[in-house]
């Protein structure tokens, strides 16, 4: 005979006694879990300082809605190399250039891997792409292939006609709105031009208007950056307490269905533009379906299956659609908030380009102040405020601290950008001139400013991202004068952030413009 869950309990046991029993049992489990935690100093080895963790959840409760800011303030108390527990996972938070150099340069090999996370499980089939893929031969093979066929300097140069045409259409659309004195949603306009531009670069065609693609990409980046309990307290994963698993399944399904449709259409010759002078990145991958990624490597015969193609495309689309538009949004926000900087940028553009034509890509190397503006925007508004998490592949001692194997590493670039010891007492101010006599590049050699990461896991798409940012920002600043709508003052501009893998504005940027070129 079947016995129900409660049949074994004494009939006289009251509900209050049952509650007390479960509370005591839960507390006992919590302390067992806590004292078996790898964050404890069991062998006399010194861990970095940090706040005391709670049982089960560790320090997750201290992160809040904007974890990069919470960790910034915790680091002021515990130092630039801080240890916290995220559930069961020992985590190191780095908040200074010197500390970042130790972890990402001196011990780069040890911290070159990525943790296994639920978002990668759903979006990239457990890590069959680049960003969240664990360090090893597969990652090296895919990275090399993507650089060769999409992200190299020669490939980026080939896309120049597409950039020119799409940015020209952006200017024309803004000019039409300006002519009737209407407000424009600049966030949406920038996102749209980047979607069109990168769709043609990646897929060889425009995006299907029937598919609302941008929200899927936004959701993917948000869910890839949030602190998901399922990643840190695995036994709670089946409960999906935050609802992230449900959202991951929905968003990943939408993206994968879109790419499946694109693969099928390409194989059937549907919606392909025969006028393209080159074969797109996506078309090249599909043409290699079920063949080796690197046919010359007999030791590692990785195959381009459907899952590999879809996983790689998720990475490429997310990086090229969203992160670039986020930087442009924040940069324009700061230009509107600081009219002095906007005027200085427009004067440089007038000097280099003149008022009788639009900006050409050949003008960009001459725009030194534009580069200062972009660097200052990266400093205050890094695209990935905590970069993408790294993971240690072995026990290691860094700066006298013991870092156990499988520790997660978070590099708080948002905090580093606000450090007065690095950027002087006006670190909170948007002041591009600070870079005038400061030779800092963006390739990861100068650890004060590493918006694209550095070392083995540095972003391979930096060059493509920068040329897109520069030409769009230069064109918009050169072709139009800008003001906030409804008499809003610059100091009233909303600066609220929305945390995820990237750090976009929480609300759209609405502006009014006036065409300023001489016809």
UniProtKB/TrEMBL annotation:
GO terms for molecular function: heme binding; iron ion binding; monooxygenase activity; oxidoreductase activity, acting on paired donors, with incorporation or reduction of molecular oxygen. It is found in: Membrane. GO terms for cellular component: membrane. Coiled coil: none annotated. The chain crosses the membrane at residues 18-36. It holds the Pfam family p450. The keyword Transmembrane helix applies. Keywords: Heme, Iron, Membrane, Metal-binding, Monooxygenase, Oxidoreductase, Transmembrane, Transmembrane helix. Its cofactor is heme. Heme binds at residue 459. It comes from the Eukaryota. Belongs to the cytochrome P450 family. This is Cytochrome P450. It comes from Gossypium raimondii (Peruvian cotton).
């Amino acid at each position: 005979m079947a016995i129900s869950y409660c049949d074994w309990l004494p009939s006289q046991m009251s509900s209050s006694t049952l509650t007390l029993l479960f509370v005591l049992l839960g507390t006992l489990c919590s302390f067992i879990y806590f004292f078996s935690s790898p964050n404890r100093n069991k062998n006399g080895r010194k861990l970095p300082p940090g706040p005391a963790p709670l049982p089960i959840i560790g320090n997750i409760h201290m992160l809040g809605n904007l974890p990069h800011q919470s960790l910034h303030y915790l680091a002021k108390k515990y130092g630039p190399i801080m240890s916290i527990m995220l559930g069961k996972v020992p985590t190191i938070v780095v908040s200074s250039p010197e500390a970042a150099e130790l972890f990402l340069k001196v011990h780069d090999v040890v911290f070159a891997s990525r943790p296994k996370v639920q978002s990668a499980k759903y979006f990239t089939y457990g890590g069959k792409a680049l960003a969240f893929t664990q360090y090893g031969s597969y990652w090296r093979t895919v990275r090399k292939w993507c650089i060769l066929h999409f992200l190299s300097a020669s490939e980026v140069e080939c896309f120049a006609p597409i950039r020119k045409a799409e940015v020209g259409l952006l200017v024309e659309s803004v000019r039409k709105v300006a002519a009737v004195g209407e407000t424009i949603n600049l966030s949406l306009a920038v996102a749209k031009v980047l979607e069109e531009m990168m769709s043609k670069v990646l897929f060889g065609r425009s995006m299907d208007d029937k598919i609302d693609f941008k929200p899927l990409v936004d959701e993917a980046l948000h869910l890839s950056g949030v602190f998901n309990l399922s990643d840190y307290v695995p036994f709670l994963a089946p409960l999906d307490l935050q609802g992230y698993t449900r959202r991951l399944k929905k968003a990943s399904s939408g993206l994968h269905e879109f790419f499946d449709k694109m693969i099928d259409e390409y194989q059937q010759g549907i919606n392909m533009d025969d006028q393209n002078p080159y074969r797109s990145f996506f078309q090249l991958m599909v043409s290699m379906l079920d063949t080796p990624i690197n046919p010359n490597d007999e030791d590692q015969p990785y195959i381009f299956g459907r899952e590999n193609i879809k996983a790689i495309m998720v990475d490429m689309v997310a990086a090229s659609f969203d992160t670039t538009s986020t930087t442009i949004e924040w940069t324009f926000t700061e230009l509107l908030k600081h009219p002095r900087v906007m005027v200085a940028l427009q004067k440089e553009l007038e000097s280099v380009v003149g008022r009788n034509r639009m900006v050409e890509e050949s003008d960009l190397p001459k725009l030194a102040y534009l580069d200062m503006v972009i660097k200052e925007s990266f400093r205050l508004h890094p695209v990935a405020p905590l970069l993408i998490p790294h993971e240690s592949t072995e026990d290691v001692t860094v700066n006298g601290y013991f870092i156990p194997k499988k520790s997660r590493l978070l590099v708080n670039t948002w905090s580093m950008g606000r450090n007065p010891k690095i950027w002087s007492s006006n670190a909170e101010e948007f002041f591009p001139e600070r870079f005038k006599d400061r030779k800092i590049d963006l390739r990861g050699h100068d650890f004060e400013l590493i918006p694209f990461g550095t070392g083995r896991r540095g972003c391979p798409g930096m060059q493509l991202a920068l040329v897109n940012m520069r030409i769009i920002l230069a064109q918009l600043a050169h072709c139009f004068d800008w003001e906030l709508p409804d008499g809003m003052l610059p100091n009233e501009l909303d600066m609220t952030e929305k945390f995820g893998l990237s750090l976009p504005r929480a609300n759209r940027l609405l502006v009014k413009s006036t065409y300023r070129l001489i016809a």
